[in-house]
Amino acid sequence: MTAMKRHGRLAAVLTAALLAACGDKIDRTVTGPAPAARIKFFNFGVNAPGVDFYANSVKMTAINSAIGVESTRGTIYGEGGAGGFYVNISPGQYTLNGKITDTTSHGLAISAASQTVENGKAYSFYQSGFYNATTKTVDAFVLEDAWTPPTDLTKASIRFVNTISNATGPLTLVVKSQSTGSSEIVIGLPVDYKGATTYTTIPFGVYDLYARYTGSSTNVFTRTGVSFGIGRVYTVAARGDITVPGTTATNRPFFDSTPNY
Length: 261
Fold this sequence. Notes:
Layout: H1 3-20, E1 37-43, E2 51-55, E3 58-59, E4 79-80, E5 87-89, E6 92-100, E7 109-117, E8 122-132, E9 137-144, E10 155-162, E11 171-177, E12 185-191, E13 200-203, E14 205-213, E15 221-228, E16 233-239, E17 254-259
Parallel strand pairs: 1-8, 10-16
Antiparallel strand pairs: 1-4, 1-5, 2-3, 2-6, 6-7, 8-9, 10-13, 11-12, 11-14, 14-15, 16-17
């Protein structure tokens, strides 16, 4: 069995478990094999409310409360829907949305992006930039997750996605191993807002991450002690408000590391 087939079966199991916990509003009827494409959802829109994510009219993610009913919390800022796992989706043309979960504006779509989903491919949907509380809107975009597992199992693969809209220029991700103290590794080319690098193979281990502007050696923000495991694939996304100083504010600039495989 290939790695992709193993991953597909695992995704199907995880999706079934997640949907079973999401309440009666999700269609859980099983009529055939699991859909042959996958998608992740992220709420990285600064100040955005909690949302459930939809593909056309189908709810793809939800949160189960402690009393066994669907929560109005939703996926809040800084989180990935469905616990950061892929959700299975059938190939086709979709409008993808984040819809508010609170009782005041329940069901209002605050983000939208169109995407043609192809058989056998994986995708990520990002709410990004800044939430406008007056218009109740926030940016969104979709990327294909065109990864393959590393053939060298002493390695990991990572890419960089930029969801920060108020950076003053493209950002570059630089990583440095904590364990070996080796030279810095630049991950791909500088990335504009809503852009991404290709996947870069690095030795597995624990790394410090640095965001820099093009041509500068000054760190705009950092995150230390991020692990990249043997034979694994990750997306490192920059989110937050580039102007917020310090290391504690919820909306500070931050690196989010999520496994793809």
